[in-house]
Amino acid sequence: MVNMNLKVSVIIPTYKRSEFLTRAIDSILNQTYKHIEIIVVDDNHPESDYRKQTENKISRYIDGNLIIYHKNSTNMGGALARNEGIHIASGDYITFLDDDDVYEEQKIETQIMYMHTNNLDVSFTNVKICNISGDLVDYREHKYVNDLSNGELLKQHILHHLTPTDTYMFKREVLQDLNGFDNVSMGQEFRLMLKAIEKDLHIGYLSRADVIQYVHDEERISIGDNKIIAEIELYEFKKKYFNVLNNKQIKYVKFRHFSVLAIVGLRSGKYILFFNNLWLAFFTSPKFFITELVQKWRINTKVKKEIALRK
């Protein structure tokens, strides 16, 4: 049995998405585990309409002392906004929730029980991806993780990314010792997990999904020039770790890089970028190209079956 006196701090950074924020907060208030501290970090500019809208949306939570509401004096960006929450947090454990995503009701209880039972410093889980209507469109799991040694986790993280942030749970003192998130334009959660692995922390993988991540057009950064630049920067950063990978694994990192740029090109309407990187992905490894297509088809089939069962 988990010690129910253990407090969990949930940090929600919010920026220009007040229309989704109350849904995120409610999903935490509805948790089966009740010893929770909710910290909302408002990263909107103080004089903006977004700040006023956020204040109006969450006024009832503030009046009821249901949340800690921290207003940044200026827009700091996601990484530093989360770090503000980490500085405020008083919980034994810390988790994160994006303002447009939700936790299913057993998320915190299940994860803290797993953490406490196995004396873990950090853990991560799977995640469900839904569209704005709530339909399941993807299910991301880490089937390739079958060895929790830090050396193997490092390889799998470089290859596949042990993310997203919503699935993380950290011991507070461990997270503070890591100095929280690095202030980079993209891959903040990637670098945080990388620091945890390189610090040789005790990391666990809970193979279940109690987090729902929504995909929509509101303030997502999965398209455009900034995404392209950030992807290239992340790939160049990963090259520093090629010495721990074998030739096949290096080829996969290259394949994945070109594949991501192809998808960004397609979503951004940059069709030359799309076709160039699609060809580069195939040329790098026809085997990976076909395998990934088959895997994507299987996931889509699984998702469609789950949707059909719901109906």
List the topology elements:
Elements: E1 8-14, H1 18-29, E2 36-42, H2 49-57, H3 59-63, E3 68-71, H4 78-88, E4 93-96, E5 102-103, H5 107-118, E6 122-125, E7 127-131, E8 136-140, H6 150-160, E9 169-171, H7 172-177, H8 188-198, E10 203-206, E11 211-215, H9 225-238, H10 247-268, H11 271-284, H12 286-310
Parallel strand pairs: 1-2, 1-4, 2-3, 6-10, 7-11
Antiparallel strand pairs: 4-9, 5-11, 6-9, 7-8
Helix pairs in contact: 1-2, 6-8, 6-10, 9-10, 10-11, 11-12
Rg, please? 20 Å
End-to-end distance? 36 Å
Strand order of the largest sheet: 3-2-1-4-9-6-10
**What is the ordering of alpha helices and beta strands?**
EHEHHEHEEHEEEHEHHEEHHHH
Runs in which pLDDT lies below 50 for 5 or more consecutive residues are none
| Fraction of helical residues | 40-55%
The geometry reads as globular
Number of helices, where a helix is a run of at least 4 consecutive DSSP H or I residues: 12
Largest sheet: 7 strands, mixed
Structural class: alpha/beta
